[in-house]
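Before going further, it is useful to explain how the protein records used in this thesis are read. An example of such a record is reproduced below.

***
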Amino acid sequence: MSSIKSPDVVRSTVADTWRWLWPDMLMRIIPMAVIPFLYITFLHLPLSFLGLTWHDVPEQLAIGVLVGIFMAAFAAVYRMFIVGPWFRRPTISDHFLQGFFYLFINGPVEELFFRGFVWAAITQWTGWIGWGWLVSTATYTLYHRLGKWNWRSVGGVGLAGLVFSLIYLEQPTPRTLLAVIIVHGFTTAGFLSWGDEVMYQRWKRKQGT
């Protein structure tokens, strides 16, 4: 890892990313993607139970992109000033690989599981949407400790989770996950990939002074 004060820059390559991505897919992504569908299949529930509806698409896209850009910037700044100065600058190819994973795999699956499944299931069991919101947001935040994230990083996840939940909560029923998925993807990429590039550019400016 490099820091703002390091004389050299450590790179992250496609090979580096593949080393953690495949185990992550097998142990986390696939189970989290399958469990919600098993639940609605067993209980004969519609896809809309999980927020998998297709309506107000232009509005959802606009909200997702606009809020997502803001959240990506927030995540990068939070990473740089709150979490710490350490970074690994991804290669161009690695940026594309990581970006694809965060935007089109990780974001959709985490939202399907936490906002779609956990929120809906807890609300169904308790009869109160407040419990669904509380449990889904808390479990989404704290499960990052399983990945050995430090508490400063987990705190950032908690702040992001509040935004994701608010976007989902404020929608009319049946709710859709589309905007939340987009915002989630931008936020994660801003924190874990684009944030490294921002920190590298800051490092580069400091080297020139």
